[in-house]
Amino acid sequence: MTSYVILGLATLHGVHAWGVLGHATVAYVAQNYLSAATASWAQGVLADTSTSYLANIASWADTYRSTTAGAWSAPLHFIDAEDNPPTSCSVNYARDCGATGCSVSAMANYTQRVGDGRLSAANIAEALRFLVHFVGDITQPLHDEAFEAGANGVAVTFMGFSDNLHSDWDTYMPEELIGGSSLADAKSWATTLISEINSGTYESAKASWIAGDDIGNVVTTATRWASDANALVCSVVMPKGAAALTAEKDLYPTYYDDVIGTIELQIAKGGYRLANWLNMIFETEVAAKREIRELVDESELDGRKFLPEPRALSKAKLARAAIGYGCNHTH
Length: 331
Ligand SMILES: [Zn+2]
Prior knowledge:
mainly alpha, P1 Nuclease, globular, disordered N terminus, disordered C terminus, binds zinc ion, nucleic acid binding, metal-binding
């Protein structure tokens, strides 16, 4: 009975990307590298001025996909690379994205939407929640792999439990490392990763994680992120093939010890990339559009000095002039 219940939970976890712990940790790492202006914009969009504003919504997309209303978004959490691990790994956007969309097309769509000032506040907040989640998903190697539905179909044993390789990568191996899945656990893991990024193991690699990232070329950028993680399927996740892992008596401790460093690397990378991505969106889209709006407002106000004679104006224009063009500021 007990093992039946545990298997059921494992199956549920298997459909998610990084579990709650992984996504919240990516978010906390990102929060650390946001500029003050980007952070205050994100807090405003999410209507959350707490110190966990990104971590609080990092797993929203996984909750949403499991609802009837959100079922359409399930394909956006991964890209099904039709490669052949461990012999050959590759991601090809045209081959792999699929007609219903994928993580890479979702990045393109929500990057555009989050900076589109014409959308409602609710739509912009939704776009930001999706972005925070999908940057995390893309760094999980098994979210960039079609083989056995991202290894959801690869049966393994981890710490005595029968589960699948995907859920071990998403949830059970990270939780074994950290010892829990609360926001406090995520924050503490993020603190460790941040110090490795600033002056430790990842210091020399971090520039390469974001090299060439370009919000004007989202598909190219996100495909590169997906390819980077997908390569790990061949080199780290299943270097001797999936059957060898199914045959293992238990993935703990040998396999776990082999891969846990890669899991940490991918979480750190996801957070660092997410921060850079949001900083770029803010600077290039949000702040730039704000400046243009202010310039337009100013020039229209200046224009009042050069208004034509009243008789040349329509009644409507006269009415606008009478209220001092105040309407410009409500656009
Ligand atoms: Zn997901």
